[in-house]
Design brief:
Elements (H helix, E strand, L loop, with lengths): L19 H4 L12 H12 L8 E5 L5 H12 L2 E5 L7 H6 L1 H6 L2 E4 L5 E4 L1 E5 L13 H11 L4 E5 L7 H5 L2 E5 L4 H15 L2 E2 L1 H10 L4 H12 L4 E2 L15 H8 L5 H10 L4 H11 L6 H24 L5 H16 L12 H27 L3 H18 L1 H8 L3 H8 L2 H31 L10 H5 L34
Parallel strand pairs: 1-6, 1-7, 2-5, 5-6, 8-9
Antiparallel strand pairs: 3-4
Length: about 500
C-alpha cells in the first residue's frame, strides 16, 4: 500500500503571493459584508432544509458575496461543498454523472465519538446564467433534472436573473444580493490593510470603496494593485488602480437629461463600443421622457439631422463624419432636455423589440404549419394559401382537444384563437392532466413490480404436447358432462382447432 505524507504550512504563516480576494474570502457567514437580509434568508433555508425543499437561487451584481455566502454556509453547517462554474464542462451527461450522483448520495464522516455519521453535500451551480455554447449543451435540462431528484441541498448563483432558463427559475426560491455601499466596503478594506501591514489613509480607502461601485471583489483587487510593494497608501496613489469606469449606454442616456457638459457627453459616447447608428436609436427610444410635445419635436429635429450624417457616412464610407452625427444628436438633445432629469426607466430601442417580436411570431407560425401539416397530412402551401382559416375555426370550437392532439404550447394555441388568457388556462390544464396521468402510471408500475408472480408449473412430456387451456380467475363449476373424444389420428388444422 502506498503511503502519502502531506506537510501542511502552519495557519499563522503569511501566504505570500496569494490573491487577496481568495486569501480574505469569508470563512463563516458572520464574516460576510453587507446583505444582512439575504444572509438571514439563507440561514433559515439551511436550518429548515429537508428532501423536497426548493433550491435557493442567489442573484445580484458581481462582487456582492453570493459565492462566498454559499461556501461559508457549507462551512457553518458542516456540509461538503461541490461546485460547478463556467470553467467546468457542464454538458448534460457530465452534470448527470457527477452532480446527479452527488445530489442523490450522502458522504460519511467521522464524529467526535469515532463513529461514522452521514454528512450532507451542498451542490453549488455558480454562474448558472452562463449556460451557453457546446461546452454546456444540455446543461440546463440536466440541472432541472438534478433539482427534481436531489436528496441534498442545491444552490444556484447568477449575476443576470433575466439570463436564466425560465424553468430553472420556477423551481427555485430566489434571494437577491444588492450592491454594497461604500460605507460597508470601507471597513473590510481597512481590515485587510491592517492584516497586511499597510498603512492606508481614510481618503485612499474612501476613493477605492466609492470607485468599486458596490463590488467588494473589485475593491479588494484595486487595493491589492495599489498596495503592491507599498507600506503606505495615500489618496493620490490609488488613482491608477481604480476600477475601469468606462461609460455604458445607460450612463450616456442618463447624462443627456442631466446638466452634463458637452465635452463629458462626447467623452462618454467615445467610450462606448456602440456606433452612432446604434446610439441614435437609444436616444430616439427615450426622448418620450421629455415633458411636452414641442420638446419632443425639437429633439426629433436634432436626431433627423444626425441621421443625415450617419447616412452620408455609410454611403461614402467616410467615417470622420460620425463625429458630427454624434455631436448633433447628443448636444442638441441635451439642450432640449435642459437638465430636467430622467425619472423613469431607460427604454431599449423600439425597433429591436419589434424585430424580436416579429422573429418570435415567425417561429410560432412555422411551428404550427409544421404540426398541422404533419398531423393532418396537409401540404404547407395549401395551409398558407387559405386552409388556415377553417383550421382556426375548428380549433376555436374545441381548443382543449386540438391543443392535446397537436401538442400546442401557449403561443401556438394563441396563434389560432387570439385569446392569450384562454390559451394559457387550456395549456396549464393539459399539463396538469399529463402530470396526474404520469403519477398514476408510475403507481401502476410500482404495484406490478411489487407483486411476486407464481412460478410456472413444470409440465411433463405428455402435458406439454396437450393444448394450453386459459382459465378465468373465477372458474365455473365443473360440469358432469364428459367432453367428447377427438377422432383418432385427427390433425389440428388451425390455431384453435385443438379446442
Amino acid at each position: 500500500m502506498e503511503v502519502i505524507v502531506v506537510f501542511f504550512k502552519p495557519s499563522g504563516t503569511k501566504t505570500e503571493g496569494m490573491d487577496w480576494v481568495e486569501k480574505y474570502r469569508p470563512a463563516s457567514l458572520s464574516d460576510i459584508t453587507g446583505n444582512g437580509t439575504a444572509i438571514r434568508q439563507v440561514i433559515a433555508w439551511a436550518r429548515d432544509w429537508h428532501a423536497g425543499v426548493s433550491p435557493l437561487l442567489l442573484y445580484g451584481k458581481p462582487g456582492t458575496g453570493k459565492t462566498s455566502t454559499a461556501h461559508a454556509l457549507a462551512h457553518d453547517m458542516g456540509w461538503e461543498p461541490i461546485e460547478f462554474n463556467a470553467s467546468d464542462q457542464r454538458t448534460g451527461p457530465v452534470l448527470e454523472h457527477i452532480a446527479g450522483a452527488s445530489a442523490t448520495t450522502t458522504s460519511l464522516t467521522g464524529n467526535d465519538d469515532g463513529e461514522w455519521a452521514p454528512r450532507r453535500k451542498l451542490i453549488i451551480f455558480d454562474e448558472a446564467d452562463n449556460l451557453h455554447g457546446s461546452a454546456d449543451r444540455g446543461g440546463a435540462k440536466a440541472i432541472i433534472g438534478i433539482i427534481k431528484e436531489a436528496k441534498q441541498p442545491v444552490m444556484l448563483i447568477a449575476n443576470d436573473i433575466y439570463g436564466m432558463d425560465k424553468e430553472i427559475k420556477t423551481q427555485c426560491d430566489m434571494v437577491q444580493f444588492r450592491a454594497l455601499t461604500a460605507r460597508s466596503v470601507a471597513p473590510r478594506l481597512r481590515y485587510i490593510c491592517s492584516k497586511e501591514g499597510v498603512t492606508c489613509s481614510d481618503g485612499a480607502v474612501q476613493v477605492i470603496a466609492e470607485s468599486a461601485g458596490g463590488d467588494l471583489r473589485a475593491a479588494v483587487n484595486m487595493l491589492y494593485a495599489a498596495a503592491a510593494g507599498m507600506d503606505h497608501l495615500d489618496e493620490d496613489m490609488v488613482s491608477s488602480s481604480q476600477k475601469d469606469e468606462r461609460s455604458t449606454i445607460f450612463d450616456l442616456i442618463s447624462a443627456l437629461f442631466q446638466r452634463t457638459r458637452d465635452q463629458d457627453l462626447l467623452r462618454k459616447s467615445y467610450e462606448l463600443s456602440d456606433t452612432p447608428d446604434t446610439i441614435v436609436q437609444w436616444v430616439q427610444a427615450n426622448i418620450d421622457h421629455l415633458d411636452d410635445l414641442p420638446s419632443i419635436a425639437a429633439a426629433d429635429a436634432y436626431l433627423a439631422e444626425s441621421d443625415l450624417f450617419i447616412g452620408r457616412t455609410l454611403r461614402r464610407q467616410y467615417y470622420t463624419m460620425w463625429r458630427y452625427a454624434t455631436a448633433i444628436m447628443l448636444i442638441g438633445t441635451a439642450s432640449v432636455a435642459d437638465g430636467r432629469g430622467l425619472h423613469a426607466r431607460i427604454n431599449s430601442p423600439g425597433r429591436w423589440r419589434r424585430m424580436a417580436t416579429a422573429k418570435q411570431q415567425k417561429g410560432t407560425r412555422n411551428s404550427v404549419f409544421k404540426k398541422v401539416g404533419e398531423s393532418y397530412h396537409i401540404p404547407g402551401g395549401a395551409l398558407r394559401e387559405g386552409l388556415m382559416t377553417p383550421v382556426s375555426y375548428l380549433i376555436e370550437a374545441d381548443p382543449a382537444w386540438y391543443a392535446s392532439d397537436l401538442r400546442l404550447d401557449t403561443g401556438e394555441l394563441n396563434y389560432f384563437i387570439h385569446d392569450k388568457v384562454v390559451a394559457t388556462e387550456v395549456v396549464k390544464e393539459l399539463v396538469r392532466q399529463e402530470r396526474e396521468a404520469g403519477k398514476i402510471k408510475k403507481q401502476k408500475i410500482k404495484m406490478v413490480k411489487g407483486k411476486n408472480p407464481e412460478p410456472a408449473p413444470v409440465l411433463s412430456k405428455e402435458d406439454a404436447s396437450a393444448p394450453a387451456v386459459i382459465s378465468d380467475s373465477n372458474p365455473a363449476p365443473a360440469s358432469d358432462e364428459k367432453p367428447k373424444d377427438k377422432k383418432a389420428g385427427g390433425k389440428q388444422a388451425t390455431l384453435f382447432g385443438g379446442f
